[in-house]
Specification:
The chain contains 10 helices and 2 strands, in the order αααααααββααα. By secondary structure, the protein is mainly α. Helix 5 packs across helix 6 and helix 8 packs across helix 9.
C-alpha cells in the first residue's frame, strides 16, 4: 500500500487532501490520525467516503500486520522453534517454553487462530499457517542474526539472546541487512 496509490485513490474521491504529513512505514501501517484530523476534506461526506475507502482498500494481511504485536510474534516464533523439534506442538508446550500460564497461552492461541496465523487440529496440536510460518521464520532469522552480532562484539551468549528477543521486533529491515552483511564479511 504505497503513498502514490493512496493519492490516486483520494483523487478518485474528489477530495483535496494534502498528504505531506502522511507516513507509511515498512510494515504497511497507515498513520491516519493526522489525516482524519485534517480539515481539508470535501465536507462530512468526503470524510465518510475516505474513512470507508481506507477500511475496504487495506488488504487483510496489512490489517493483520497492524494487529500482530511483539507478543504475538514471540508466540509464533516459539511454535516455529518447537515444531522444528517435534510436529506435535501443544499449548502446554508453548507455555512451558515461554514460562507463561495456561490462561495466557490459551488467550494468545485463540487470537493467533482468529488472526489466521495458526490452526489447532482435533487433537489440540498447533500448526502454523503459511502466513504464520513466514512471520515466525522472519522473527527467528532476526533473532539469530542479532544474537550472533551481539556475541561477536563481546556480549555474553545468554544476555545476547535475551537482548535479541527485545530487538528483533523493532529493528528495521535496513539495519538488520547491514548487520547481516557485517557478520558475513567477518
Amino acid at each position: 500500500f504505497r503513498q502514490a496509490t493512496f493519492q490516486v485513490a483520494l483523487a478518485k474521491l474528489n477530495c483535496n487532501l494534502i498528504l505531506r504529513d502522511t507516513h507509511f512505514n515498512e510494515k504497511g501501517q497507515i498513520f491516519i490520525k493526522n489525516l482524519l484530523q485534517n480539515q481539508r476534506f470535501c465536507g462530512e461526506t468526503g470524510l465518510f467516503r475516505l474513512t470507508y475507502f481506507i477500511i475496504i482498500t487495506v488488504s487483510v494481511s496489512e490489517v493483520k500486520a497492524m494487529r500482530l504485536l511483539a507478543s504475538g510474534e514471540m508466540y509464533l516464533e516459539t511454535i516455529f522453534i518447537l515444531s522444528q523439534e517435534s510436529n506435535a506442538v501443544r499449548s502446554i508446550d508453548v507455555g512451558e517454553y515461554m514460562g507463561y500460564s495456561k490462561p495466557s497461552v490459551s488467550r494468545a492461541v485463540g487470537l493467533l487462530k482468529e488472526g489466521g496465523y495458526i490452526t489447532v487440529d482435533g487433537d489440540g496440536f498447533l500448526h502454523l499457517t503459511e502466513e504464520g510460518r513466514e512471520i515466525a521464520e522472519k522473527i527467528f532469522e532476526r533473532h539469530t542474526i542479532l544474537t550472533a552480532f551481539l556475541t561477536s562484539i563481546g556480549v555474553d551468549r545468554e544476555i545476547a539472546a535475551e537482548d535479541a528477543c527485545k530487538m528483533e521486533h523493532d529493528i528495521s529491515d535496513t539495519s538488520l541487512l547491514a548487520i547481516k552483511k557485517y557478520l558475513e564479511s567477518k
